[in-house]
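The passage that follows is intended for readers who have already worked through the single-chain material. We present the inputs for a multi-component assembly, then the predicted structure in tokenized form, and finally a short commentary. You are encouraged to pause after the input and sketch how you expect the pieces to fit together before reading on.
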Amino acid sequence: MSWRQRFSRWDVKTAPYLYIAPFFLLFALVGLFPLLYTGWVALNKWSLITGNQGFIGLANFQYVLAQPRFWDAVTNTFSIFLLSSVPQIFLALGIAAVLNANLRAKTFWRMGVLVPYVVAPVAVSLVFGQLFADESGVFNAVLTSVGLDPIGWHSDRFWSHIAIATMVNFRWTGYNTLIFLAAMQAIPRDVTEAAVVDGANRWQTFFNVTVPMLRPTIIFVVITSTIGGLQIFDEPRLFDNFSLGGPDREWMTVTMYLYELGWNSQRNLGRSAAVAWLLFVIIVVFALINYVITRRIADSDHRPNRKALVK
Amino acid sequence: MRSPLMRGAAALAGLTLLVTGCSSNAAPSASSPASDEKITLTVATFNEFGYDDLFAEYTKLHPNITITPKKAATSNEARENYFSKLAAGSGLSDIEAIEVDWLPDVMQTSDKLMDLTGDDVKGRWLDWKAGAATTADGKLVGFGTDIGPEGVCYRSDLFKKAGLPTDRAEVAKLLGTTWADYFNVGKQFVAKSNGVAWFDSADAIMQGQINQLPNAFSSSDTEEVLIPMDQNQPVKDMYTSILKASVDDKLSAHLQQWQPDWTSAFQKGKFATMLCPGWMLGVIEGNAKGVEGWDIANTFPGGGGNWGGSYLTVPAQGAHQQAARDLAAWLTAPDQQIKAFKAKGTFPSQVEALNSPDLLGVTNKFFNNAPTGQILADRAKAVTVNPFKGPQYFAVRQVLSDAMNRVDVTKKQTAEVSWAQAVKEFGALS
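Having made your guess, compare it with the prediction:
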């Protein structure tokens, strides 16, 4: 083998890795390194202001796990996540299906659903802050005008979660709709036409053909909204002007707890980093569970059908 | 002390600046700049310092200097930014405003700030104002800007309806000298007020009282030794009496300051009095636009009180420290602070300013033409206590504030239950 041949073979083998290397280098720098470094910070007594005060092993984790506040934060996070992500995905699927039909002024409607996503979260929070104010808010004014009791949006744990989930849904439903819509348009017409020829009605076509064929997209949306939902920060933080999650931390999420420990009351980066790692573990576990469940759901009943369709 | 993580973050921040083309300074020069060198100074403040016109005036005096103001919406936001970047060693403005409540932390990191001592500013401020920003070894970390001497603001129209005197001298006499007096008049008021509350927020009253304790949370005033919450009888007594006034005597409007409901309550006239430091006058005027009847009484329950006030610091990480010090010294000189007071109501902390006829002659149209300059100067002189605030002050104050609000605002707990929870939360701080 000549040198030239050898080089060409080496080139063929290694070039793909070189092409993807920039991403992984960047990831190592801004993703992996901070991740590991956070792990190191979590094992030390580390103050925001005075820096590293020495290795203390797992004490930070022990502290965090023993705090009722941490478990409150976990509960709040899951509550807000479920109240937002679940309705959001169903809504997005529904809206996408409607947008996929033959509408007049298609582009207008399609762009329309994306508008809330473009609005800055701070602006969204300001507007919703006026709507959800306990005494002077629009929603409570409507409730009292029809003779109902006003709702304590900022004093009742459950209702504060509903209010925050509403903001989240307002912002993200349109975004997920567009992803679903794109996937729906990629479904070949002949498949749906074949279903129609076989006598399926609209509902049957949607549930037996469209949804199964959206499987990878649904998994993608579920996983990304799980990650995003469990890391939720902006909306609950901006739900009042103190950004702590209420006097009893009614709507404090895990990321807000992390922030409070690290930057606000204790300025203890070690404990904050421990929370970050616990959150990371929770997210990984939960994303895996979701992955398995969504795969099952989208898979069952339709396996033969799907195999027939996918070459 | 500079961690690699922070350095990485700083480097990234620097990168972002480069990418977005926002880099503020040209080549940084370590030595003090020649007087005609063109430089840009960034000045970070929050809320309202009343400096907008002063910046223009300074650049006219010093044509080589461009000032880029940065204004954070809340002091909390500014605080987080300040400490993150101070630790990171870069990213701060040339002049950074700080609030008196951050001083405990700032003192811990005084090596990251320029020492501002100098003959030009000796004796410029009230003793307690400068003293709070001076380290044990005599380093001055910040130039005092404003202070928050407190009076009592009241709605004379609502007083009249409830059969109380309305004239500000009579009201001052009526309100008495102790907190018990203040609450007693409140009881008289709510008995005839038709649902209007006496004060806006229980935690605001706590703020007034806590600033009258020389050692609220620490048993020593040189180094912080936290008093366990369950053994802190003076604070527990305040807590109990204020919440009794709020819940049993129905004196509170059950609002939390700065929340939308509090802001809109000014328009609806939901409460009749408010503890008001000088800077609050502007806030009230803004929130109560169009409402007539606000006035201010030259008194404060329990002796004088100071709430808040700020300083200007010059971070040692800045490229133009000397020029920044010059600007900060000019801004905090008596003449300029009087102008800031006229613009935004931030009350000067400079001795000379307090006696200046220019200041004493100031009246406030919105507050029924009250001589606010004279009243606040009197209130400033009534302050005798310089409360000690250690590094954990902020955290403990937060625990107490949450406890108050669980009873006063969200009404989800009784005072006893909420206190027990506060004791636990205090335990979790260490």
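Commentary: Chain A has two domains: 3-42, 61-309. Chain A has 14 helices and two strands. How closely did your sketch match?
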